[in-house]
Amino acid sequence: RWRGATVARPARGADALHPLAEPVASDLLAPAAREMVRERAARFLDRHIESTLAPLLALERARMRGAARGLAFRLCESLGAVPMAAARPQVGALDPAERRALARLGVRIGTESLFLPALLKPARARLLALLWTIHRGLPPREPPTGAAVVAAEAELAEEFYMAAGYRRMGTRAVRLDRLERFAAAARKLARAGRFAPSAELVRALGAGADEVGPLLECLGYRALRGNEGTEYERARRGSDAHASKRRPARAASESDSPFAVLRRARTA
């Protein structure tokens, strides 16, 4: 803005982290003057992004190798946060030196997300959310900055919440650092078997006790409701009964195979 009047707006660039500056249409501007406005607005926009999102730009410019280079590119492309489920193969390919290099640049490899904690500050989260909407040609939306848990709006994409430093969990959105603490506290309790929601979980989440149960289920824990209340346990991928039913079927299949027939013939 200049003297309260809008002179230029950010527009979609090559990627979300590098938008363009477009002067507003005006019959009062000759082509040369319009270009001057564009250049000055672009410099302002670049400086603003540079100063506000310095940790992310440092990651973008870092000379990385191997899997770390791919993860750095992915983090910059998604504006600083990636679900661990989507990044696990690349994270698993990191060697110790690559892990240390990412850590020095402020990258946290959590169990639920890969992210830069420094980007969770409100001013940075607001700019990241704005850049996300600009790159997709959407109207600006105010991100949920500050609170540990907020209601997730159905029409907003999960990528929007990730750019703003939150993770959608069912009908809620949880700030990435709080989600890591909450998940760690739940894993600690689950080591002893079934557990009831505790004050420790509430403190780790930084939200009301009524948020704990639904979020545990989103993390894959199974609710066991009884007369004395609800307890939780890790959900198993498959029961022993199912496994025992599958084993005889495989044995029968193997006994009829050509190799098994040949083996019996040789034995005879």
Task: Provide a descriptive summary of the structure in words.
There is one protein chain. This protein has 268 residues and is α+β, with helices and mostly antiparallel strands. The chain is 50% helix and 15% strand. The chain is built from 12 helices and 10 strands. It has helices at 31-52, 54-61, 66-77, 84-92, 96-104, 122-135, 158-163, 176-190, 199-205, 212-218, 240-255, 258-267, and strands at residues 8-11, 20-23, 81-83, 108-109, 113-115, 149-151, 166-169, 172-175, 221-226, 229-234. The strands form 4 sheets. It has a 3-stranded antiparallel beta sheet, with helices on one face. A hairpin with a 3-residue loop joins strand 4 (108-109) and strand 5 (113-115). Helix 2 packs antiparallel against helix 3 and helix 8 (176-190) packs antiparallel against helix 9. The longest helix has 22 residues, at 31-52.
**First-residue to last-residue Cα separation:** 93 Å
What is the subunit arrangement here? Answer: single chain
Spatial strand sequence of the major β-sheet: 3-5-4
The total count of helices amounts to: 12
Task: Report the order of strands and helices.
Answer: EEHHHEHHEEHEHEEHHHEEHH
Gyration radius, rounded: 26 Å
Percent of residues in β-strands:
5-15%
Summed over residues and divided by their number, the pLDDT gives a mean of: 88
Chart the SSEs and their pairings.
Blueprint: E1 8-11, E2 20-23, H1 31-52, H2 54-61, H3 66-77, E3 81-83, H4 84-92, H5 96-104, E4 108-109, E5 113-115, H6 122-135, E6 149-151, H7 158-163, E7 166-169, E8 172-175, H8 176-190, H9 199-205, H10 212-218, E9 221-226, E10 229-234, H11 240-255, H12 258-267
Antiparallel strand pairs: 1-2, 3-5, 4-5, 6-8, 7-8, 9-10
